[in-house]
Inverse folding.
């Protein structure tokens, strides 16, 4: 034990590629200060403000009928938008990863497009299509179909902003896995569907879960796109993020932060699951989704 | 695909495959992509052209629109610069140093991607308002952060925080220590090695992260509107102006501002693709 200090040669050898301890400590301190101010303070303040007027007020803010209606709507929207984008993501990655065709990278760029567009524009385009003054507005109102300021519009805007998540995760993963296993299965007489279910799906399941997780977090938390198409009718077309805004603008801060804290918990849960998947199944995840 | 068709089809298989399902999955992909993304976006373009050339430019070059677009772009630029510096720093700290809680902090960097923007917006406002924790400190020295353009930069810094970290981190992980050792052996100080050897290697990835953060910041809405103050010509961002025009039922003006923002998005997308192509070439050569 006494000769421990003399065994530190490998570490000493690396000194040339290390900063001096003082500099290292200063850089770490700067990093911690930045993260403290920009990440932890906002997160802590959500829960601090939510509980400022006591647990009783917190619970009643969350269980109030308009808040419950907002929670229900958010869950409904995610329950429609996420599976649709999941099916699309699987179909798109099958077509793109398992086959060779011209225009592939252009198609991938188009799939990524919603990430580059402001959420407000995502809402605007549906208002221009389906709103009262929109292209299809007169026809829709003549047939009594409501899209904008109703559930379909909220779902459409949510689908738009979460469009690339699953596809973006699955395409590089399936490209990396190649086509050998599926080709072998099909030569041995499996149908395309059997090859997908028995071979592809097990291979991509963790990546799929990862994509769905991120897609769901964004779907439940989307604000800008949904704000434009929802009309913000209390208890009817208010999602949770919109309900937060309304309470906040009414100076009902504790209630706004109470509902916001539920969304913050969802974000923390998403991060925890995401880290778990990266740690446990990292080799089955492309991790290309960085939005 | 039909036999004997001579029309050039960019999506036609360039190599035959025994795997079935191409027609079905490609058909689904194109249909869904067109219905959800392409047709609605084309609708915005068609609507702007229907305004007529003169009317469109009158609305797009309106003083208030220009002020809002300038603010969105410059605040996003400022925030992306802050993130460029701290992103590289954080990526370095997470990959090269070990200290308690490092893994947890590394995972937490993705919080801005996971936290709904409205939640981030009200939380940042609570902190930077004159009555808040940091806003109160700033007020003591006579500074105002929330309800000014500075507040917008703060919100966009939060939103763009993960981009540079996540683009630079894998590059630092792959750095060859030999090069640093060689540099040190040849007599370079550590600072010279960092500046002359390491930073140039990280530059393409950092620039990619910077442009991603910039693009995100220009279009950002939810986290900004609470902290911004939203005074026309002063602290009103472009996406908010779109919302205001829609609430006034001024669809023409909303369309014009929207088209300008869409054009900026496409320009940014092109820039990002160019930066990424350059970046990939650089790292492929190394």
């Amino acid at each position: 034990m006494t000769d421990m200090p003399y065994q530190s040669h490998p570490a000493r050898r690396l000194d040339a590629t290390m900063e001096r301890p003082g500099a290292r400590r200063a850089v770490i301190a700067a990093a911690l200060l930045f993260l403290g101010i920009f990440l932890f303070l906002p997160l802590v303040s959500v829960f601090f403000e939510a509980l400022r007027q006591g647990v009783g007020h917190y619970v009643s803010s969350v269980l109030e009928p308009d808040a419950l209606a907002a929670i229900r709507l958010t869950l409904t929207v995610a329950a429609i938008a996420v599976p649709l984008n999941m099916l699309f993501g699987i179909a798109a990655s099958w077509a793109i990863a398992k086959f060779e065709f011209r225009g592939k990278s252009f198609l991938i760029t188009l799939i990524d497009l919603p990430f580059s567009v402001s959420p407000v524009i995502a809402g605007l385009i549906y208002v221009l299509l389906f709103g009262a003054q929109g292209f299809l507005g007169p026809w829709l109102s003549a047939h009594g179909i409501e899209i904008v300021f109703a559930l379909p519009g909220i779902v459409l805007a949510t689908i738009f902003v979460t469009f690339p998540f699953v596809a973006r995760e699955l395409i590089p993963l399936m490209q990396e896995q190649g086509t050998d296993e599926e080709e072998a299965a099909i030569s041995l007489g499996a149908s395309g569907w059997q090859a997908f279910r028995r071979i592809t799906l097990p291979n991509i399941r963790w990546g799929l879960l990862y994509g769905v997780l991120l897609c769901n977090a964004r779907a439940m938390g989307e604000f800008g796109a949904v704000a434009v198409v929802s009309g913000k009718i209390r208890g009817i077309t208010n999602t949770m993020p919109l309900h937060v805004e309304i309470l906040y603008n009414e100076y009902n801060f504790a209630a706004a932060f109470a509902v916001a804290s539920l969304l913050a918990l969802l974000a923390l849960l998403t991060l925890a699951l995401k880290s778990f998947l990266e740690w446990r199944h990292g080799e089955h995840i492309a991790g290309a989704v960085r939005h | 695909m039909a036999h004997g068709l001579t029309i050039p089809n960019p999506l036609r298989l360039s190599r035959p495959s025994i795997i079935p399902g191409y027609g079905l999955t490609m058909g689904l992909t194109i249909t869904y992509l067109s219905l959800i993304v392409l047709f609605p976006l084309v609708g915005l373009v068609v609507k702007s052209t229907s305004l007529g050339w003169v009317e469109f430019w009158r609305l797009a070059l309106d003083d208030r629109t220009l002020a809002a677009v300038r603010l969105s772009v410059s605040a996003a630029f400022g925030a992306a610069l802050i993130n460029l510096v701290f992103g590289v720093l954080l990526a370095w700290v997470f990959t090269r140093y070990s200290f308690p809680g490092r893994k947890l902090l590394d995972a937490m960097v993705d919080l801005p991607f996971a936290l709904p923007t409205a939640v981030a917006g009200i939380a940042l406002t609570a902190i930077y308002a004159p009555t808040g924790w940091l806003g109160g400190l700033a007020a003591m020295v006579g500074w105002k952060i929330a309800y000014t353009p500075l507040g917008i930069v703060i919100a966009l810094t939060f939103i763009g925080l993960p981009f540079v970290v996540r683009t630079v981190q894998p590059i630092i992980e792959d750095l060859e220590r030999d090069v640093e050792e060689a540099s040190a052996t040849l007599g370079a100080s550590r600072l010279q090695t960092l500046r002359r050897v390491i930073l140039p290697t990280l530059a393409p990835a950092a620039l990619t992260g910077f442009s991603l953060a910039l693009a995100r910041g220009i279009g950002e809405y939810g986290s900004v509107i609470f902290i911004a103050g939203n005074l026309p010509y002063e602290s009103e961002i472009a996406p908010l102006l779109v919302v205001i025009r829609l609430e006034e039922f001024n669809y023409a003006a909303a369309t014009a501002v929207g088209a300008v923002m869409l054009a900026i998005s496409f320009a940014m997308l092109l820039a990002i693709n160019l930066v990424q192509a350059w970046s990939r070439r650089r790292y492929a050569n190394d």
Remarks:
- The beta strands of chain A are 100-101.
- Chain A touches chain B through 102 residues (CB under 8 Å).
- Residues 1-13 of chain A have pLDDT under 50 and may be disordered.
